[in-house]
C-alpha cells in the first residue's frame, strides 16, 4: 500500500504542452460557464415577457368574454321577423341549400339556429321535399 506522500513522488511534472492543454480547457470551461449565465439571463427575461403577454392575453380574453354581440340580445320575436323577411313569399318553399336557405341564418349563432329549427316557415322546405317524395 502506498502512502499519499509516496504517490505524490511517483507523479511526474506536466509537460509544457499538457499545461497548455490544461489552461485551454480551463478557458473553454470558463467560456461555457459565462455563456450559460448569459443564457440564463436571457431565459429569465423571456419568461418575464411571456408572463406579461399571458397576463395581457387573459385580460383581453376576459374583456371579450364579457362583450355581448348585439345579434345575441335580440328577442326571439325580432329574430323570427328577420326570418320571415328573409324567406320567400308563401307558398314558395325556401330552398334547402344556397345563400337564401334558412340554414344560412342558422349559421349565425346557436340561438339563431335553434330559432330557425323552431320557425314554421323555415321547415316548409323539408315538408315540401317530403311531400314530393311521397307523391312519387
From TrEMBL:
Keywords: Coiled coil
Region feature Disordered, mapped onto this chain: 1-20
Coiled-coil annotated spans: 29-63
Name the UniProt record assigns to this protein: F-box domain-containing protein
Species, as recorded: Mycena metata
Species lineage: Eukaryota, Fungi, Dikarya, Basidiomycota, Agaricomycotina
Amino acid at each position: 500500500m502506498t502512502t499519499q506522500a509516496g504517490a505524490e513522488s511517483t507523479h511526474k511534472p506536466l509537460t509544457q504542452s499538457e499545461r497548455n492543454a490544461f489552461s485551454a480547457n480551463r478557458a473553454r470551461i470558463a467560456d461555457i460557464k459565462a455563456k450559460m449565465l448569459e443564457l440564463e439571463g436571457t431565459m429569465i427575461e423571456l419568461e418575464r415577457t411571456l408572463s406579461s403577454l399571458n397576463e395581457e392575453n387573459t385580460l383581453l380574453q376576459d374583456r371579450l368574454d364579457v362583450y355581448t354581440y348585439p345579434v345575441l340580445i335580440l328577442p326571439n320575436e325580432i329574430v323570427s321577423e328577420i326570418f320571415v323577411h328573409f324567406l320567400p313569399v308563401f307558398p314558395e318553399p325556401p330552398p334547402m341549400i344556397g345563400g337564401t336557405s334558412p340554414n344560412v341564418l342558422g349559421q349565425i349563432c346557436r340561438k339563431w339556429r335553434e330559432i330557425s329549427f323552431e320557425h314554421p316557415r323555415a321547415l316548409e322546405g323539408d315538408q315540401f321535399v317530403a311531400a314530393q317524395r311521397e307523391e312519387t
